[in-house]
Structure formats: C-alpha cells, structure tokens
Write a structure and sequence with these properties.
- The chain has about 290 residues and is of the alpha+beta class.
- The longest helix has 26 residues, at about 1-25.
- The N and C termini lie far apart (about 150 Å).
- It has helices spanning about 1-25, 35-40, 45, 55, 65-70, 95-105, 120-130, 140-150, 155-160, 250-255, 270-280; strands at about 85, 140, 180-185, 190-195, 195-205, 215-220, 220-225, 235-240, 245-250, 265-270, 285-290.
- It has a nine-stranded mixed sheet with strand order 6-11-3-4-5-10-9-8-7. Strands 1-2 form a two-stranded antiparallel ribbon.
- It has eleven helices and eleven strands.
Length: about 290
C-alpha cells in the first residue's frame, strides 16, 4: 500500500514537471536552446531594426551630402579672366559701346564718353562682382560676353546720350560765308567760314511743345548778359536769330544734359566755347538750323 502511494506521488510529480517545465525555466532566467522557428528573424524583428545612420545612408549611389559635408565644402572660385579687350586709358567707339551697355544695366550713369576712365573701371568692377566674376575693372572676353547676353545693341542716341556726337555733314547752305551751322540730327553747332569748320560744340533744342525753328536765319541781336523777359532766367552770350529764339549758354544744359530741353532756343553747355563764339560772331552772320 505504501509502495503504491509513493509511485502515485512520483507519477504526479513527473506530470507537473512536464507541464510547467518551460515556464519555470523562463521565470528562472534559463537559456533554452533556440528552436528552428526562433532561429529565423520574424517580420516583426525586421521592421524593428533601426534605420541606417546618416553615415551609412551616405554610402549609397543616390545619397545626398549631409549638412556638415556641404558646410565644409569650399565655394567655387570665380572663373579666370579671359583675354583683355579694354582697360583704363583706352579710347574709341568700342569703349563708347561698352559704356552704353553698362548704362543699360544701370552700372554706369556718366557718358558714354568713349574714354575708359575711373567711373568705367568702377562700373565694370561692380558688374563683375555681382555676377561672380573676378573684380578687375578691366573688360576681358568673359566679362564682355556676359554683358552682351544681358543687353541690346545701343542706338545712336544711347551711344551719345550725353553728347559728343561727330558733327553731321554740313548742309549745303552752310558752305559759304560766316555761318552758325546747327544740326538737329547730330545735336551739334559748327562755326564755319567759307566751308571750313572752325569749332564744334554740343547743343540742345526746344521740346515738342516749344520746338526750335528750322531754316535759314541771321543773327539780329547780341546780348552778353541777357535775362529772359518771359521766363526771367539767365541767357548769357545770347545771339538772337528768330524772334525770341537765340543761341546761348545754359547752366541747366550743363547740369542736366539731354534730360531737359529749352523753350525753343539753341542751348550750349560749354561756357568757354560759347564765350569764344560770342566774340567771333557778328550781327548779320547766317544761322542754318537743319535735320
């Protein structure tokens, strides 16, 4: 009987060991050998894997440089200057075109004069620096090509926006005698005697509302220190040729250039030239105003 009880107790203990054995090992921190299923990573374990770090991701073909990498990259150096075309001290029609184009993009406000002076050097430097070119102040082929792409071919008025045009071919009526030969086309006055040009200067005319008359006239009155009786403004070295219209010095023309206009007179801005002209011209000399 005792033996039977002992066997029954041992049998029950064995059953409990088989039923609760895995749980007991887990609770007690044992390390059971992995089964076939547990040896293969599950989908959940794959999705739980950490994302690649920036350094890992950067090794791919499509990887973009990290912020630190781009910050440490050195800036691109300006392109090397090309062949020099024009520099300080140069003169001529090509320099005048350069200046006219610089005026179109608002880097130059003087001229054009046809002389590569300090203001042109400064304008070229500014243009170059704004576009990532080397700031030399000298116009090279690289600078010139960039300027050409940004501008249009200057008109004659743009090339001579501040005056300095070559005098136009004299009107046939200017070829004999003593003549103030005044061209509206070139905006010049030439003092001529028997077909020979002795002096040329820039002039400005009246606006469309107060146009300067055209035709053949004669100097009928001279007044060195004249003041307009209509507009009460000074008209030094005035030489009247048609009613109230005269050739005279204009301080406004000297200051503003072709941004303004006269009330019909022929304005001269070179005071030295008009003073000399006033002394040479006589009452009765011919005045020709033409296109």
């Amino acid at each position: 009987m005792r033996t039977a009880v002992i066997r029954s107790t041992l049998a029950a203990t064995g059953v409990l060991a088989l039923v609760g054995g895995c749980t007991a090992q887990a609770v007690e921190g044992g390390s059971p050998a992995p089964s076939a299923a547990s040896a293969t990573p599950s989908a959940a374990s794959k999705s739980a894997s950490p994302a690649p770090s920036a350094s890992t991701a950067a090794s791919g073909d499509d990887a973009k440089p990290s912020g630190s990498a781009s910050a440490s990259a050195s800036p691109t150096a300006p392109p090397e200057p090309g062949r020099t075309l024009w520099a300080a001290g140069d003169e001529g029609p090509q320099v005048r075109e350069l200046q006219a184009r610089l005026r179109q993009v608002a880097w130059l406000f003087d001229g054009p004069t046809g002389t590569y002076g300090a203001s042109t050097v400064k304008a070229v430097e500014g243009f170059q620096g704004k576009r990532g070119l080397r700031r030399t102040g000298t116009t090279d082929t690289v600078t010139w090509q960039r300027l050409l792409r940004m501008t249009h071919e200057p008109s004659r008025d743009e090339l001579y926006a501040s005056g300095g045009r070559p005098a136009a071919k004299p009107d046939p009526r200017c070829m004999t005698g003593r003549v103030l030969c005044i061209s509206k086309t070139s905006r010049t006055l030439s003092w001529m005697i028997d077909g020979k040009r002795l002096m040329t200067t820039d002039v400005r005319f009246g606006s469309q509302y107060t146009p300067t008359r055209e035709g053949v006239f004669h100097v009928n009155f001279k007044s060195r220190d004249h003041v307009s009786t209509i507009y009460h403004t000074p008209m030094p070295y005035a030489m009247f040729f048609s009613g109230g219209q005269a050739v005279h010095y204009s301080s406004d023309f000297a200051a503003r250039g072709y941004a303004g206009a006269s009330h019909g007179c022929v304005n001269v801005r070179d005071k030295a030239k008009i003073a000399s002209l006033f002394d040479q011209v006589r009452t009765g000399d011919k005045v020709v105003v033409y296109w």
